Amino acid sequence: MTTKSSKMAVEQPREPLLGGHPALVAEAPAADRDGGFSWLTLLGFAFLTFNSAMAIYRSDGDKYAIAFVGFSYIDLVLLFICLRLFEKAEPNSTTRGNLKAAVWVLTTLLTVVFSYKVAAIMPVPVQVLVWAMAGATVLGGFYAFFVHRESKVWYHK
To answer: InterPro entries this protein is in (predicted)?
Structure first.
């Protein structure tokens, strides 16, 4: 009985980025817990890299298209690295707080860049809607990451 309770204390899941009840947070695969990468992660990065390379190849030398694809690729890679480091960081550490801020900045940059590209091909009323949605996403992310504090009590009916 004591080994089970001490084992459970060691294996408690880390706090997810946006919080949540521990029962709702899925346990990470063994490869992720050990610091390695799963084959699915490597496949995803290979797919992202291939698609980014193909988009640059098909851009016909358009500097703005190449910059957009390159920026998006680098931003996504940095975002995944920051999320990975966030999951490994000690709870309530300054590193974890800094990584949370980095994740918010990187997602905000992606939101702004993609909104700019979408709004550029839309009529003005839709542009306003696209930018309003982008603003709501950025502000909602800020609220969820830095302002909202989830209550510790869960009520069940």
So the answer is: DUF6490
Q: For the segment 98-107, what is each residue's pLDDT rounded down to a tens digit?
A: 999 999 999 9
| Dist CA 156 CA 145 (whole Å) | 25
Instruction: Return all residues near 6 (Cβ < 8 A) that are at least 6 apart.
Output: none
DSSP at 92: T
Give tens-digit pLDDT for 24-34.
Answer: 444 555 545 55
Model confidence, pTM: 0.71
Burial class of 48 by CB neighbour count within 10 A (0 to 12, 13 to 18, 19+) = middle
Phi/psi zone of residue 111: left (φ > 0), alpha (ψ -120 to 50 degrees), beta?
Answer: alpha
DSSP-derived secondary structure for 17-70: TT---GGGSPPPPHHHHTT---HHHHHHHHHHHHHHHHHHHTTTT-HHHHHHHH
Nearest partner of 80 among 64, 103, 47, judged by Cα? 103
Angle at 117 between CA 137 and CA 70, to 5 degrees: 100
